[in-house]
């Protein structure tokens, strides 16, 4: 039939014809053990969530997610999108009005303020006294309940100087801000660079081709971008220069593909912590190395997801950390969105899981300990 002929011309692979990678969604024939992990083994602190960017101000969605937190034993989430000033107040009001006990909030640096998006020379960060003003705003935010500072990927890969060059992560102009976070005893969570494949040419050798071909703007390949190594080095200099400030390298410091390299950083910087948000895809394809790594640095690894995510994805996190199941998905999406592979669990010992899920967060992040204790007391009979 004509319709069938048209279909088969679209590289659908039928009858052994050519197949477009976008259509490749193979069904695994493996029959392996499936452990149902309906909720985490211990209370969980999710240190990497985006309640502003993912929910905007949708109260119903918030209530739904708090119900999911209850089912999954997530005691609290750290929302990283608190911004500063009146926007911080709005976010706080949104999350704390009904669930003050379940959320803490991080502030963000307001690099642009009232400047024009497309004209970096008008940005607040290039005016004299910017760092000092930001420190004052942060001090105020901490008084209002802020528990940390989040730096986004655009810091290093997007924000620009008046001459058009990219703002450097280790530009000494920002030093007073990082030092102040140490004095205020709030950690900085920093997202630097991105997966290794995002810096490679988007061609047939790229292991994330499928995803990059759908999101060309995620590629940082080319001369207009600094290399991944340069970005890591600048971030590391910043961490080394501020030993009294605690830094959380978001997404396993964005180098889960090379755990030996992250190990070097962990040895060199005692003030560096890690969290695995949206990177169980990477850890789970090297489960033995990942297990050893997570056990070695068990005192400085926190739990994070990059959510709020659908319930199904949360379960994959529990299954990854708590079981030795093999060859299961890391996401509810088909085909898998961050690499066309499956993962194995790392089956962490209970004492390591406890540190990862909540104990380390209670030591590092203001406002967490009392919330975890209240949650544990309330749910002790569960
Ligand atoms: Zn994130």
Automatic annotation (TrEMBL):
One of its GO terms (cellular component) is cytoplasm. One of its GO terms (biological process) is secondary metabolic process. Keywords: Lyase, Membrane, Transmembrane. GO terms for molecular function: carboxy-lyase activity; hydrolase activity. Residues 45-365 form the Amidohydrolase-related domain. InterPro entries: ACMSD, Amidohydro-rel, Metal_Hydrolase. It holds the Pfam family Amidohydro_2. It comes from the Bacteria. This is Transmembrane protein.
